[in-house]
Structure formats: C-alpha cells, structure tokens
C-alpha cells in the first residue's frame, strides 16, 4: 500500500491537472469572441453538419420503394418542421418518429 504522502501527492497532481484543464478554455474566451472566423463558422456549421448527417444516414438506404419512401417522407417532414419551427431538436425528433412509424407500417 502506498504511503499517505504519495497518495496526497497524487491527489494534488490530479486536482491541479483537472482544474487546469477545466479552466483553460475560459482563458481563450475573450480573444475568440471578436473573431470573424468563429462568427462565420457559428453561422454556417449547423447547416453543414446537418447536411453531412443527412447524407450519411441516406447512403445505406436501399433504392427500392420500401426503403426510399419512408426515408424520403421523413426527410421532407424534417425539412418542413425545420422551416416551420427553426428548431433542430423538433426537426430531428419529428423526422425520426415519422421514419420509424413508416418503417413499421410500410414494411
């Protein structure tokens, strides 16, 4: 069994590293707030990520009526919900729900 001093030293190192890693991002907040690059990425990344996720999801969809109809309908519902509510969570949950429901009903 390690000595008490060794355990306290290890816990101190763990505490300092954990605190430092959690505090480090806040040191960069002030210089980054005025960055035009980050404003651009904040405006365009959500759309890019949704496009990548959509393509990744639809790549494995079979090109048969039984596979394409539920996927196309769910995609249309997701886009419609997003245009209507502008809420990604509502769009994802609604589209996923329609897709699962159509898969169960269709086939």
UniProtKB/TrEMBL annotation:
Transmembrane domains' residue ranges: 6-30, 88-106
Q: What Pfam families does the record tag this protein with? A: AzlD
Keyword entries, A-Z: Membrane, Transmembrane, Transmembrane helix
Source superkingdom: Bacteria
The protein's name: Branched-chain amino acid ABC transporter
Q: Which organism is it from?
A: Tomitella fengzijianii
